[in-house]
Model the fold of this input.
Amino acid sequence: MPTYEYRCLDCNRRFEIFMTYAEYGTRPVACPHCGSKNVQRRIGRVRVARSEEALLDDFADPTALEGLEDDPQALGRVMRKMSRELGEDLGPEFDEVVDRLEAGQSPDEIESALPDLAEEPQGDL
Done:
């Protein structure tokens, strides 16, 4: 049975009602807190699944990256969003860098404070 979200316009409290599709629009709805019938239907969030290609296209848009070199907090937000959108766990080092960016530290300050991050991994060649 679907859940419908409402807000009472008299007491401003939110509530949910379970009813069938057939009942929706025909069954009167009253606030369970104050009994008022002066209620408004709320539309819940909608989540849209997108392909990885569409996500990468959004991140490749150069206008979305404008000004990031001068704003470490914005850079941190973009990096965190990219990680979340791609569903990748990039480890504690990534989280540390993003936390520092969001706190306002510049990339140069972070590199000085965390010199091990700048080292190239050694590989067999």
